[in-house]
Structure formats: C-alpha cells, structure tokens
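Researcher: Here's the sequence for the chain we discussed earlier.
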Amino acid sequence: MQNVQAAPRNDRPFYVFNAIVSVAALSLLAWLLLIHGGLESPTVNLRFMPAVNAVLNATAASLLVAGFVAIRRKRVEAHRALMGSAFAASTLFLVGYLAYHAVHGDTKYGGEGVGKVVYLVILASHVLLSMGIVPMALAAFYFAWRKDFAKHTRVTKVLHPIWLYVSVTGVVVYLLLRPYYPAG
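Model: Thanks. This is the structure I predict for it:
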C-alpha cells in the first residue's frame, strides 16, 4: 500500500492579497497624512472622531487581553469571539481615523520641552509598530481559518504585544493631543 500525503497548501494567493491590502492601506494613510491635508469642509464635521477612536482603541486593547486570557484557559470559542471583536474594533478605528484625517487633516502637538519629546517618542513607536498590524492580523486570521495553528501561534506571538501596545498608545496619543484638537 502506498503512503499518500496531502498536497501542500498553496498560500500564495493569500500572501498576494495580504500584500495588496497592506500596501494599499499604508499608501492611503501616507497620502492622507503627508500630502492631502484635509478637506476642511464646512458641511462635514468629524471633530468627535478622535474621542470615538480612543474608545475603540481602548476597547481593542481590553479585548486583546481578554482573548489572551481565554486562549490560556483553553476557551477556544471565547478566544475566537474576542479576537474577532478586537479586529472589528481596530477596523472601525481605522475607518474613523481615515475619515477624520480625510476631512480635518492632522492635529499637531502644541506643547514644548520634555512633553513634546515624550509625545514624539510615543507617537513614533506607535506609528512604526502600527504598520505591521494589518498584514500580521490578516495572516493570524488566515492561519486560524486554515486551522494551521502552528503558523497562527508564530504570528500571534509577535502580533499580540505589538497590537496591544499600539492600541494602548493610541489612547495615550489621543490624551496628549486632546488639548490641541480644534473645538467643534
């Protein structure tokens, strides 16, 4: 009797999809923040969005911690629901962030001295680390969907602390910028 092995999975279409989505998201963000500058439309006011986005980041952080605890306790269904919810909260954050910056542009930190240095260090680490979340989160969900938990775990060991850090520092950045948001 012959030993028949399963054909290896072809993950290439996913990797291409992941690359396209990730590059498109980063390109749109770069364009909005570095080139576009905001519409400043008199009819569209999204000045409430930074507070909403901070709540979404705090929600994502809480869900990430709860999801981590759930999987440590072998509560796979709870973990799945919590991580899906964290992804949804972060996705809503990203949509809100894009909408706010499309309309109002960037908000500059107005402080000086040590406060500004602290703000810039937190912001730089937040921005640089956030760039990896979309491709890693998509990969984590893909490998879980494919039931390839070895790869899922390898990705999430890197993704989880980064995603948690970015979610928490998103709230911190909001709090540091809060005095400088225009009223309205």
